[in-house]
Amino acid sequence: MLTNRDQVSVVLDGGKTIVTWTHAEQNKQLAQCRTHSAFSSRITCVQWHPKQPGHLAIGHHDGTLSFYTSAAKVQLNLRVSKEDDGEVCSVQWDPLAEDYLLVVHRVGPLRLLSSQGATVLATFRHPATCRANCVAWLPQCPGMFISGDDDSGVIRLWTVGRETPLENRPLQVSGLRSLVLLSIPDDAEDTTFEAATAPVAAGAVVCLFANGGVGVHDLKRNKWDYLKEAGHVETVFSCAFRPDDSCTLASGSFDGSVKLWSCSSGRACPLSSTPGRESIVYSVSWAPSPSPLLAAATARDGVLLVDTQAARVAQRLTHHGRGISVFCVAWCAADARRVASAGGDNCCVVVQHAGQLEVQRCQHPGSVFGCDWQGADRIATACDDGIVRVFRVACKDDPEPIELRGHTAKVFNVKWCPALKNVLCSGSDDCSIRVWDTEQGSCVRTLLGHKGHVRGIAWNHAFPHLIISGSWDFSIRVWDVRTAECVAVENEHGADVYGISVCPSRPLLVASTSRDSTVRLWNLAPLIPVITMAPLVPKNALDVLFTDEFCLNEDWVVRIHGEIAQKMDEMLSSTQLDQMRKFLAVSDLLHGDPCVSNLWDLVMVLRGTKEMSQLSKQYTRGVVHASHVATCRLADATQDELKAKGQGQKAEAELRKAADGFLRAGALRRYCEVMVRLGEWDKALGVAPGVSLDYWKQINQKRINELYARESELVLPHALAHGDLQGLVTFYANRGQLEESLALSCLSGLKAEAGSEAAADRPGDDGSFCSGSPLMSTTARAVAESMLRKGQPIKAACTLLAVDDDHGALQMLMRGNELELLVTVGRALGKTNDCHVDRALALLAVRARRLKEWKLAIDLLSEIKDVEVRKHGTLRLLVNFPGSSTVREQLLKEAGLPDTEKCAQRAHELKIFDEVDRVYEAVQLLMAVGEFEEAVDLGCRIVPEILQPHRKWNLEKALKIMELVHETGIVSDKIRLLSAYLGTLIAIRRGYHSIVPALIENAVMELRRSGDGSCGLQEAQLHALTGLDTGMLGRLKEAPSADPDRGNVHVTGSALPSNSGTKRCILAGAPIRGPILRLDNSESSLVSLSDAIMWAKCGAMSPLGTVLNPF
């Protein structure tokens, strides 16, 4: 369908009929205008004239064109050329002319035509082996247009007065499918820029790529304003993690492609997609390690065995028959030779793929939608008749299959329990998930909660009490199979959820796929906080491993099970690994974010590891240390150069990519060599003097200044050769390309002088690296802050570790609430006395108290090095501690406090004083002996005194007092007002800008509620706070760098797009993106987790009058 203001056209009847309608503005209805069906060839494209109502151009499969207007006779199937140029791919009217248009054929040149008789006015020729697929005019620059190549993502700028392109711009590897120019406002300034030989209109063009990518390209600045990398363009049915690589995920889609994803970067890996021209891919399954083969079940072509290293289909298994849909494929982990597949021929077929030998055919009464292996000799199937069946494979006796009945609609998927060999689960169109005992032949659990057909299901192999499911109700649910309860629900997919996969080597990482064409990653760590916190106390590390066999009983204690538990046990018991390496390995396994591997690689570099071969194989995919940047870029560029074999467009693209890599690695000599191979002598000669000629710098500086003034990216080679890294970093930072700015700043840490042979060829090969470069540090901070705001705190920490800023990295993990990681990284770097580590341990103890894990809370507090932090944490714990008096006395002693009797005596001596320090100590001692009401009264008396305008504020002490008050559970108008007012001051000081307006509003509301001002605060103080006058700002100096809680909090995923509807935070009022916290069971009490953490760190009570504990 194509529209143009008040006219609409639709192509029908196999592409040989076109119907047009007129839109009536008065009654908002369409009235059919004309129907044309006399075309001799199928219609491939249509285009209304943008300014001439009723003018329509039509392209056909046989290469002809048709034209008509609403008032004239139709010109049918006019041939443009005597040669066979193939079908018409695109037609575009010139918006500044009445009857001129551009025509793109599948082969042959571009042509400018007149619609009067299809007369050719001009011909435009592409470079050899290239062909165009789409075009777009540049209205602000008459007579100029751009084209997009079909086989590669190159756009070319043209003018009608020249046969060859003005400029060629490689954008992506994948071909272009459409170009749409975004309009420029009439009052916009500087609407032109200089191309190779002529001024070209500035603006942005929307580029649609064949691999599903889409971007908005700024023509003037030659950069992406927005770019979505290659993704699926249709429903994604299935996904599977590679068994030996937790960072690689495969997915199959309705668009016919199989893609590989790098989970650490969230982007499709190189050579990661089949062309997308196969039939629908319903299911994918990896061969057991170390094979690179991936099986894909398709709608028409059987089972494809894809060689992921070569990115090609290595073999086809067609045992279900040609044209028969195969809905599921499962590779046998116990016997890598066997592959099972379930299809629409009512069979589950087991094949020995190497020789395509059919081992067994399991017949069913209806279509088979799912299958799964148990060992090498049993397979479970899901059938259209609602029955789950279990077959013996290659068994001599060939017994009858076990039939499990209970579902009331078709069964779509089955999965065996990883811990119990006779237990499996199944998902059905009756919206339920059932857990079966195959020995008893009965259903032992029914999981109810989904409102739509259940599609994807997965059993967590390390935590076998958890089942994850996806449904047509758009939700993902996590179930505790012991109690049949749903423990978590996520609604972030915007459509049906089809595929669920648990990472084999990182069990808390889960992937899901959906009809919304996305693949999403989830972290299960919040569901098992005790398991993730326990290893932080070394003596508790082995306690989280399984001791007894898993069972379905409710009293089974959650422990790590299976191969992951065995792997952890081996590492923790090893005598060859030091304590820190054990610690890092365990932390890596117990975190759901694959970026953690990158974090630990950087930690190992900071601990002295120099060889990249000793780091993980994913290291070069993520953030690399500044001392490795040049080496990694040089290696990538060399690899690209080796790929450039022979002639043609692809070889040219690889060479250009290699040249760009050499350039960004600072290898100017190699850059010049590649440019000579490309025949671009002007660029080679222009950069070559930077290798050794000093006098060239004077001449080159003029060129640099000119290019900076024009904001041209052509400045990059000249400025690098000149050594003007400061200018380049500023240049890219101003363009918003912060990561590129950081990478370039890292070159400033290399000691080789710019212009020397070492700098020109392989900077940093001698390992010489200076971590104190102010330019590099400042840029890294800016990039890390940007990543944190995008909800990527671990990547932000990696960025700072890459430039040796360990303190900054710990700060990023604190602001991302990655507390367990913070403690582990701090210990690994020898920063056990760092304020961030102590604060993280204190917050983890708060979390343990919320979970009633008192022993764990005590152990965590004992790890704190700072005496005052440990004392305050112990006092907060003692308020609700259920232990014996003996244990309480021991805790007091460890916190540096006297026994209960002496505490009481000292408290009554101090409480009569007015000095803040003495009263604060009295509050602490009263809390220690359990005299809570008196402690609360005393605290509520001294806090207003602390906050009086004539006093020197001590906000930290006031906050500690209010935290102790909150622990008692005593709530009053005075307490709510004090916490709201104090929380506002703390938030302003720490830079929690997103919640300050809501805190002020809450404080004003509480003041008006209290009425008489008996709490010691006056309304004038609130007005001063609301206006933030100069006197207030002068007293609220920025929190010191030693404060571990300074800076806005952005938890992991807090910037991800949400498809679950508009939900607003009750605290800040803004729409919630990312993780959500519920204050109660109502939908109106939703809280952004980031805002909740900042609110809680300020000591403020929620608007519901409750104390927040989101840690």
Automatic annotation (TrEMBL):
Answer whether the UniProt record assigns the keyword Lyase to this protein: no
Under the heading SMART domains, the entry gives:
WD40 (SM00320)
The UniProt record lists the keyword DNA-binding:
no
UniProt keywords, alphabetically: Repeat, WD repeat
Against CDD domains, the record matches this protein to: WD40 (cd00200)
The stretch of residues making up the signal peptide is none
Matching InterPro entries, A to Z?
Answer: Quinoprotein_ADH-like_sf (IPR011047), WD40/YVTN_repeat-like_dom_sf (IPR015943), WD40_PAC1 (IPR020472), WD40_repeat_CS (IPR019775), WD40_repeat_dom_sf (IPR036322), WD40_rpt (IPR001680)
Q: Which PROSITE patterns match?
A: WD_REPEATS_1, WD_REPEATS_2, WD_REPEATS_REGION
Organism superkingdom: Eukaryota
The WD repeats extend over 229-262, 404-446, 447-489, 490-524
Give the protein name, as stated in the record. Anaphase-promoting complex subunit 4 WD40 domain-containing protein
The scientific name of the source species is Cloeon dipterum
